[in-house]
Specification:
4 copies of one chain form a homotetramer.
Chain A (H helix, E strand, L loop, with lengths): L18 H9 L12 H14 L4 E5 L2 H12 L4 E6 L3 H4 L4 H6 L3 E5 L8 H14 L5 E8 L10 H13 L4 E5 L2 H8 L3 H4 L7 E5 L9 E5 L5 H10 L8 H11 L3 H21 L4 E2 L7 E5 L2 H9 L5 E3 L9 E5 L6 H16 L1
Parallel strand pairs in A: 2-3, 2-4, 4-5, 5-6
Antiparallel strand pairs in A: 1-7, 6-7, 8-9, 9-11, 10-11
Helix pairs in contact in A: 1-11, 2-11, 3-10, 6-7, 8-12, 12-14, 13-14
């Protein structure tokens, strides 16, 4: 399965787990412990998360990002609620309707926006429309943001401030889909607290799988009072592990010794290098490379050439008003600078040829 | 966390994972592989399951037994369907409404019955009632059986034949909740095929977590044509692992070299020994001990004494028509005969004292 | 369609509408009025209901009793909630899973009880069990009572006091299924307020269809703050009439000049007469006849004889511990004393024959 | 409530009921008849609908258009299905998520398009995208069209042919939201059969309320085999009237003696006259006036003037790429030509002033 140099740039979810993860599983694998989260690992996880985010919170581990998003949103909104998101958000297009399912039919309302971002004014306008429609329209219930976004960009603190303030002014809680939250945090260079609840974020889907875990995500609730409802929904959704220790142990290892940030900084740096290298070959970036994803337009012949060289990556639908063809290249915690240089060398050779 | 001798008899889900499981994870932890089940481990799992069950089938890995049951039932029944089960079934009382949630509000209809079993005639009568009620009542849609049952008994092949024949005569598919299927199989001494589809079982929730895995269950569909619908529901339920290899690898290890049956036979034998030992101390079994659970009435002083000695187990609601107090003792793959003898010795000492 | 004497005793929902209802529709049929409830009839209905119930309230008209019950319960409970009811409650057996559907999969938990009634202690025990089960079981969320009950009995004020106090002590709102509320009120002889919110009832499904309307029911919320949520659910359920005036006009006519109580007293009196007449012919009542339904065991030959004479009524499943055969005879607002005497005469003739 | 001349142009759902409707109710108001649709009126309705549509079919009466749409779609699609519609469709924006609720969370996927119409190629492209996304995206499940559309236009037979052929090629059934089906039919001038199943329409929401009924709509299923599932969903949705005769009687009167078409032709002709009159005053139509709705841009001063004269109508969001301000004027079966001329005279006076 291994490959030298690495030629798979399809996604960060094709990666193996970090050695620290398997070590954590092994360390937790000793004798019986109480099931369903009443184990010491899960208890420790809560303490650790409170240190990391510098506040009271509840952290609820689950297996997938889809589960984290759907459970968080279902806890925040009624079934007759409307959830504002970017029209290309993962919750909108890539989760087979999980938020609708978990919420009992709430409606995701997609808004357009450059670089995968939505703006405070768009939310305000959409809320005004819905309120005017009254009982005939789903009523405004939440805002969900992807951080990093689906286009590899990262909302800046001021953008988050504006969005959260607008949402809260209209009584809407703010959820953040942080499947790549560590990458966003590495970009922002601020503390986890500054990137979330200090801006007004109410609930965070904290991803670890793409950044080194086997399968571990969590919903972080900055209002711990919401935890009982979310935990009942988790059980009901079949997401409560009986042997919860193996989920919590991964998350502990993730937050421990800044593993998450080291991984994310590494992947981000590789993406930045990759983007600047491709720019010298005529690549045109679709959006700034803030995290570990590069969306780039390249000559069709060059794209075909890279594939002929064994490189694997996805074609991507060009955003509105952007000519294609667009490809997506994703870097990951387990790639090396040499992997990037090898790709760039191959691209240069193809471009020259 | 460890303990010698083991004094925790609360459940088989408090156990650590078998060493074979961690080895399987480590072996799968090499470089990138395609995500979402398009990996070689998942492919191999399907082949292996077909060998084990000697038929065409689809096997869909998930994380928890609740997810397996709810996804299987939701695939089999419409939202206006009625699902016949024992009134104490796990789906009825222990899954926080997961089957109702996944199915869109289908109704579990609990039937009474000795030893956790329902009988073919009960299903026939309930179906007749529902059909007579017409559109006012949820319409018969499926039968679900726990094998082993919630009372540690095991349906015999003839009982399964009768139930499946009655169900099919009325157009109802049969689902088997096999959270402890290996224990049932060890009791029956027949092949997996003989215990399931040869009897008429249409879908099986195959448990591995209680019997050695970290977190691994699967829905086995004996009609593979149902797989696409179930897979969409799995994604939508947030149960599709991106790094599926780590789930499939556990299930492969489970089915490999009869690990599942060795574990189950071991736990069953310990339960049998435990039951017979307690019988000599005045214990009265609530139901035959077919698998790895002992439901037993003991003198209240003896129960208190064992707890004073550090033993941990659950009080259990006595079944209809049975005087209590009832306790449940569960054996597991990772207990030793010495653990059982130690408990019996403690009980003898308390009984003598 | 007409018949003299009337021989249909199957249900009070086979009746035509009272003349007052058609007159009310005609009176409302003049020119355009605002749609969706912003009309003067609906406004007047709210005022009238407040007078009748002597309190602030919201009244939300719908078309069917099933809709009223399901919408009320869905507004009161979360999807992971358990709803305590009698095991023979209409919501449990006759609504094809509507409460489960509207609530997103909440679970009706049926309790046994004589004469269709549940008792405060049963609720307390069931709550204690569910709380002990924690996240594995649906959590206690509401109590729903049928008044009159499914067995034609009526909860007395003291019984309601005890049930509501217990429910509230555990944080559970109380819903009353009043498909035959007028009949219960006529039995109790107290004011609507004394029969409901003064006892602790939080929401009432107020039926009119069985008692003279074409199709008109309403949810009465004694906490008007719940109305916006219920109204959104009503729209979403397709139960918001655009020409709401025709629904409100029926309910206005129903409450006007005590039409509802006159109808109910009349039907109740006929049922009492019917029951006492049948008792003299060897009929054994299954439950006291408090309202307009008679559940009675009669000799099989007599039952067959009445049917041979053209009488129509339902066989009914005998309650636990009661030998059959049981039939149900329902009286209605549009029957005459002569209809009852004719049935009794026919029965006497058959009994004598 | 009455007004001479009529100045309310907000909607056709503010109208009173036609006299024929009240007469039909009165005629049906004689003695007991079997409940829940086993009455002669409902039986006759089915026969009549088969004559009208010249085919086998099932017709399932309900109270509102939202209920008809949601029940029809829920019967056609799985919860993980995607439903293609125009982005301004009533199901998308005006039903508070009813289709999502009834279907268990299926997703409406809005497509843009001139005049409220979608085209076959758009459906083909959207299906290709969804299929390529696989399990991550809701899977194509149905197409729903509004006929007449939300912009008062009517799909021509050739447009319907193309859409239905494309949908069926991809295995998708076609639903038609016919809240104003009679108006569309009056425009097309063809038979009901030619406008529906002969084009490939699988299910029709047939509206009567806006065109003269009190509250009566129906789902017409051209595949009667779907009826049992839809009828169970209707019961479960609380939409099964016990006194069904009063719903069926309205629909019988509607289809009788071409009442529906006479009403629709009348309203359409008034709209055409209104549009041409406004055009001479500088009104710019947003879309062709095919049915009984006029969407028109008028000078702001003229709009304000009409309102000052007591005229009532809605401002409407301008469609993409269209400058506003847009207002909507709706004609109805109970308006007279004099009402239109009065409005035009008022407009002329304001324009001149």
């Amino acid at each position: 399965m291994s490959e030298r140099p690495r030629r798979t740039f399809t996604s960060d979810n094709v990666t193996a787990a970090a050695p620290e993860m398997l070590e954590a599983l092994a360390a937790a694998n000793t004798g019986p412990v109480p099931s369903y989260g009443a184990d010491p690992y899960t208890e420790r996880l809560t303490s650790r998360a409170r240190e990391v985010f510098e506040c009271e919170l509840a952290i609820v581990p689950v297996t997938t990002g889809t589960a984290a998003n759907a459970l968080a949103l279902a806890t925040l909104v009624p079934p007759y609620g409307g959830i504002y998101c970017h029209e290309t958000a993962h919750v909108m297009t890539d989760e087979c309707g999980a938020p609708e399912f978990y919420s009992g039919g709430a409606k995701l309302l997609g808004l357009p926006g450059e670089g995968g971002k939505i703006a405070a004014e768009q939310v305000a306008e959409a809320v005004a429309f819905a309120r005017a429609m009254g009982v005939h329209h789903v009523q405004p219930a939440a805002v969900t943001l992807s951080q990093a976004t689906e286009w590899g960009t990262v909302y800046r603190l001021g953008e988050l401030d504006a969005l959260c303030a607008t949402a809260h002014r209209h009584g809407l809680p703010v959820h953040m889909d942080g499947a790549r939250f560590a990458n966003a945090l590495a970009c922002l260079g601020c503390s986890p607290a500054e990137a979330t609840w200090k801006r007004g974020v109410d609930a965070l889907s904290l991803g670890a799988t793409k950044n080194g875990a086997l399968a571990a995500e969590a919903v972080v609730l900055f209002d711990p009072a919401l935890a009982p409802a979310l935990e009942l929904r988790r059980k009901r959704g079949g997401h409560l592990w009986s042997k919860m220790r193996y989920l919590s142990a991964q998350l502990l290892a993730y937050l421990d010794a800044d593993l998450w940030l080291r991984h994310a900084r590494h992947a981000n740096a590789l993406a930045t290098r990759l983007a600047s290298g491709l720019a010298t070959l005529g690549g045109s970036l679709v959006a700034p490379v803030d995290a570990n994803e590069v969306f780039v337009t390249l000559p069709a012949a060059l794209i075909a050439g890279l594939r002929a060289d064994g490189y694997d990556f996805y074609d991507w639908p060009a955003p509105r008003g952007h000519a294609g063809p667009v490809i997506r290249l994703v870097t990951a915690y387990d790639m090396s600078p040499a992997d990037i240089e090898a790709l760039l060398a191959a691209a240069r050779a193809r471009a020259a040829g």
